[in-house]
Amino acid sequence: MPAFFFWDETMTDYLKVNLANWNDRAAIHIKDEAGGYRVKEFLEGADNLHGIEDREIGDVRGKRIAHLQCHFGIDTLCLARRGASCVGLDFSPVAITAARDLQKQTGLDASFVEGNVYDARALIEGNFDMVYVTWGAIGWLPDVVRWAKVMSSLLKPGGTLYLLEGHPTLMALNEKTPNLEHGFDWRTPPNAPIVEDEATTYTGDTTPVTATTTNSWIHPLSDIINAVIGAGMRLDYLHEHEELAWQFASIMVPIEGKRRMWILPEGFPKLPLAFSLQATKN
Ligand SMILES: C[S@@+](CC[C@H](N)C(=O)[O-])C[C@H]1O[C@@H](n2cnc3c(N)ncnc32)[C@H](O)[C@@H]1O
Can you give the C-alpha Rg of the chain in angstroms? Predict the structure, then answer.
């Protein structure tokens, strides 16, 4: 990590660019024409969580859970369907409006807050048994040290942070090259994000996105773990996985018999595609 880092207007501008993109994507994702978010199945009672988080989070009945970067709330509501009392936060008003609508339709024990994840402590009341962050969240954030402090501040003593994410080793590869060539530095400085332009979103839906530019960051495992420890949490485990919840590159293939999970094709040298960690607040 850089020796010091000031949050300034540039950081806010990066996030504003991302917000415009996420509002567009949320509007497409909630329609779920590509079917990847399983909105219809969810409304019919399905549980959309994947095998990894299902195995790792255990029984959540009776727990208070804060779900950060909750998108339009399907996973938040699935946690509530498992018996937790949930608050979801996301900075996209389009996503939060959709999440509140799904909550009304299902009557599950969840509420939704619109705001920047860095402001979560000020925006969400109370302390939580679990802070839940999964699949495609921290790569949108420039500063993982500040992020970890906010996560810790939301937990009661003994409460746990659960983080499940794309692996930084994979994120440094260029998904547009046929053999996944090394494409990016392993660590992205906060003030020099990876700037990309994508005409459509990742679900396979071909609806054009209007705000096409995004800023993202790769955070090495050591930065994440040190940030978590530095924010007053104890690492319980770190796991690495050979499967991912989205098709990062076109060479990846769906896992037979599993919903919405992807692996590298047979014969391609194996890599960690995702990691998960649990940390307990001291
Ligand atoms: C890939 S989605 C995460 C999906 C999540 N796994 C879920 O439960 O569906 C990334 C989310 O992060 C949100 N996001 C990105 N930057 C944010 C920020 N600074 N503060 C709050 N939300 C943010 C986006 O609006 C988007 O909904």
Answer: 18
> Over the range 6-36, which residues count as b (16 or more CB within 10 Å of their CB) and which as e?
eeeeebeebbeebbbbbbbbbbbbbebeeeb
Total number of domains in the chain: 1
Q: Is the CB of 132 under 6 A from ligand 1?
A: no
List 239's β-bridge partners, or say none: 276
Report CA(266)–ligand 1 centroid distance (Å).
32
- Cβ of 135 less than 6 Å from ligand 1: yes
- Distance (Å, whole) CA 143 – CA 191: 10
* CATH number of the domain enclosing 179: 3.40.50.150
Whole-angstrom Cα distance, residue 150 to residue 121?
6
pLDDT at 4: 42
Q: Which pLDDT value is given to residue 3?
A: 36
112 and 141 in contact (C-beta within 8 Å)? no
Structural domain contains residue 1: no
- Testing ligand 1's pocket by substitution, the residue of 121, 140, 276 carrying the most ligand atoms inside 8 A of its CB is 140
**Amino acid present at 54:** D
Ligand 1 atom having least distance to the Cα of 70 = 8
Closest-CA residue to 89 (of 65, 124, 113): 113
Q: Is the CB of 111 under 6 A from ligand 1?
A: no
Q: Residue 2 has what pLDDT?
A: 39
Q: What's the rounded mean pLDDT across residues 132-137?
A: 98
Domain range for 213: 9-281
Q: For the whole model, what pTM was predicted? A: 0.96
